[in-house]
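As noted in the main text, all predictions were made from sequence alone. Below is one such record, for Signal peptidase I.
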Amino acid sequence: MPEKKDKKEWLEWLKAIAIAVILAFLLRTFVFATSIVEGDSMDPTLQHGERVIFNKIVYIIGEPSRGDIVIIQRPTKNYVKRVIGLPGETVEVRNHILYINGEPYEQRFLTVDSKNYTGNFGPIEIPDGKYFVMGDHRAISKDSRNGLGFITEDEIIGRSEFIIFPFSEISRTK
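Prediction:
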């Protein structure tokens, strides 16, 4: 009789492990994933080498908002950038000031140095179904101004939520 009990216990353990693996796979595939920040284009908000958790489901039930830090999937590389302009808006940078539809937009997430290195750009109208993104370190960022172009919603695979590594930097992304 003990053999039957041992076998049943092993089957229960295997079932629990299988369920945990399937649940982890589903969460990673459809809800949350991680990404490593490469380069300094999001400095000072995100640093090179930091690992972030991003929310994959948020844009299935909603749309990107101005200020969201998003993960953009391109065939050769993923990018981490900030949403600046929404579909149908006009974006312009003049004398280091960002204008959205002709109105100055306060970029509280930038340092004074970052603001002062934002060169003139635009005005440019964002087509329907597209987004305009920029890195927070404007002087060196490859973004919608200079290489990435407009971003489609299906290229945005998630919103950055938390910095999880290095452990000393654990925090919510802003």
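The CA atoms of residues 91 and 100 lie 5 Å apart. The chain has two domains: 1-30, 31-161. These features were considered when defining construct boundaries for the mutagenesis experiments described in Section 2.9.
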